[in-house]
Amino acid sequence: MKIEDIIIAKDLSLSDFLDKLTSKDFYRLYPNNCFPTEEMMNEYLDTIEQRTDNEIRSILRRFLIHNSTYGSDEFYAKNLIAKKGDKAYFSSNNVKTEYNRRVLTKFLTNKGEVWEGLTWILDLLPHFPNEAIKAIDAYFLANCMMLPDNFLSGLSDSGVIIRARYINYKHPKEIFWDLNPIDFEYLIAALFENMEYKVSVTKSSYDEGIDLNAVKDELGQKEKVVIQCKRYTKQTIGISDIRNLLGVVNDKKVTKGILITTSKFSSESRKFERNNPSIELIDISGLMKLLNTYLGTYWTEKLDKIINEQKMNNKSR
Questions:
Q1: Distance CA 245, CA 1 (A)
Q2: Dist. CA 243–CA 249, nearest whole Å
Q3: DSSP the chain
Q4: pLDDT digits (tens, 9 = 90+) for 274-296
């Protein structure tokens, strides 16, 4: 390709960049595996809720690593071969990193690709966005010393897109207000079960102001948590409710008390939380993020199933 044929991505508008990214001009675009500027990425994030899932997946497919080999791999392989001589291939199984082994195998036998792709994480979306981000982070950690800079930027941009689209996605608030208070408790129970707690829903006549009990019993993560659920529409949660929760925490000698609401907390309540680490307050914004993270972005579409499964599980306990 001639230099004059290259399309400089940073000189394009966002819409032109996206058009080129998913067209036959993709190979002429530079860079074509990450946003060319932070400003363009921010512009995209500002409109991400209006983007379709198909568009998101098309962009991620460009930004994620594919089974492939890059120019820097050949340069690195030549250096390894120069140091190891004719014994380079035979020692490829004894090198310190998998990258060295793959790069030697590729350029001495012309078999396989140096980079094992990451596009499989698309199958985790939209239902398991947190796992997709963890996979990207692990891949980045394992390979950050060898991957070219633009490819590292592409991985970072992919994580940002997934978080913005699938974890920070804002569902209509009315989804909560259409639930009765008991069903809301069962939804929260499902959330904490997916956060790897053992959860029980208390009987209303014996709850002592507590709706759920949640326990972790793993080494280094032992926790006993009491949870209050307040499905409010507009009412701000004041400090008296928070003080009452702290009293329950102290009385029951549990690790922490969590108050979850579909509304907001007063500034005085937030100050009280900061001064009392055994209290955690989760408002509607934080709740949305947790539900998207642990139940999948489109948990609203399977809401009845989630609640009914919790009812059956709690009945069998």
A1: 67
A2: 10
A3: --GGG-EEGGGS-HHHHHHHHTSGGGGGEES-SS-SSHHHHHHHHHTGGGS-HHHHHHHHHHHS--SB--HHHHHHHHHHHHHHGGGTTTTGGGSSSHHHHHHHHHHHH--S-SBPP-GGGGGGTTT-HHHHHHHHHHHHHHHTTTS-HHHHHHHHHHHHHHIIIIIS----THHHHTS-HHHHHHHHHHHHHHTT-EEEEPPGGG-TT--EEEEE-STT--EEEEEEEE--SSPPB-HHHHHHHHHHHHHHT-SEEEEEESS-B-HHHHHHHHH-TTEEEE-HHHHHHHHHHHH-TTGGGGHHHHHHHHHHHHHH-
A4: 999 999 999 999 999 999 999 99
Give the residue among 222, 206, 204, 224 at the shortest CA–CA distance from 214: 224
Residue 205 pLDDT more than 70?
no
**How far, in Å, CA of 293 to CA of 160, rounded?**
14
Which tokens go with 96? Answer: 């310190």
Distance CA 218, CA 73 (A): 43
Q: Which residues pair with 257 in a beta bridge?
A: 226, 279
Q: Return the bridge partners of 295, or none.
A: none
* High-pLDDT (> 70) share of the chain, %: 93
Peptide bond preceding 126 in cis form (omega within 30 of 0): yes
Beta bridge mates, 281: 259
Local confidence band at 80 (pLDDT 50, 70, 90 cut-offs)? confident
Cis, bond preceding 148 (omega within 30 deg of 0): no
Q: Which two tokens stand for residue 120?
A: 């499989």
How many whole angstroms separate alpha carbon 184 and alpha carbon 300?
12
- For the entire predicted model, the pTM comes to 0.84
Give me the domains of the chain, ranges plus CATH numbers.
3-66+117-167 (no CATH), 174-316 (3.40.1350.10)
Q: Calculate the average pLDDT of the chain.
A: 91
- Three-point CA angle 203, 205, 209, nearest 5°: 80
Q: Beta strands 29-30 and 198-201: pairing type? A: unpaired
